[in-house]
Amino acid sequence: SIYIAKHKQFSIEVTKTYGIKNWREDLKKSVLKPAGIDEKKISFLFTDTQIISNSALEDINNIINSGDVPGIYAKDDKEQIEFIGQAECQKRKLPLTSMNKWTMYFNRVKKNIHIILAMSPLSEEFRDRLRQFPSLVSCCTINWFTEWPAEALLGVARGNIVEKNLELGPSLDGVVEMFRIIHQSVEQKSKRYLLIMRRHNYVTPTSFLEFLTLYSDILRKKRKENDQKQQRLKKGLDVLNDAKIKIEQLQQTLNQKRPVLERTKADIKQTKEDILAKTLEASKKREMVKEAQEKAAKQEAEVSTYQAEAEQKLAEAEPILQQAYTVVKQLQVNDFTFIKNLPHPPVAVTKVAEMICIMFEVPPKTDKKSPEDPMGYFAAMKISEYLLQNPNNMKANLIGFKKR
Length: 404
Fold this sequence. Notes:
With about 400 residues, the chain is mainly alpha-helical. The protein has a three-stranded parallel β-sheet with strand order 1-2-3. Helix 7 packs across helix 8 and helix 10 packs across helix 13.
């Protein structure tokens, strides 16, 4: 009917980011200004799924009632509107007042706009919207779409299946008839449900279209599952066929290598006999090992005795070590500096130097031997960075030696 009336159809496209600002802009640029300024015939199709908020329905209510949406026009738009209104006033010989100009513009808008509202009556929202916006009832012609006839159901079902290219082949007529039977049976049951339970169950054309969509989705899903199963079955058969071929090849190989297998068996028999002989020999060696173990156990007992004696002596030396540790803590840095500067260290000092170098793994300086330092340990202690080369750290190193 829009094509016959030579109207231009417009409908908004709702996205996730579509808001009331986008709605007002689309309404002004694509509906109100083309109808009022350009005097184009516009058919605005608006469905309940495109309602982003009640503000949109309020704007529709205002357009139906007065042809205007308050606050939608900018200053530049108002100049164009007043120019159009002035021309209409001059044509009708009306006073050139602002009210008359805008009235002429609103009349052009209402004359050139045809608003088509498509809403489902199933929910309570439909009743609430009619109460909030009375122009939807008082200024509109309501067309109630009732049950589709059988011919319409068959035609829509066939067109939907052909359009989606479901490739039903000879089953197409039967499937289309099945859609009709199911939909009409639900309509009959809904009437009986109303008589018995006094409650409505609405079966709308949308329900039929959703039924067709559901069938298409399930059919594609099941076909995909069947294709996957067929592929797995084919793959399994191919694997079995390959296995059969490989088994035959292995059987041929086995027949060819059977003489080799017999020779291998004979070799294995001979090997077993050799192993048995070696086992007897190993038993003899085991006895020898046993004797050696007993001897080792005796030696271990002797070692344990020596270890006990050593631990006893260590326990006796522990108090002496603790006493020496206490004496070292009492030494001052000046004492180490004094020892470092001795030109002829006494024998006791060189002996202590030898002991400390051995403790810190400092090798002697054989090239700096002297009568007082025949081994060169005192000279090594003087130049070691852990010892007398840095007297400040030597005390800490000696005290910390127990913790190393």
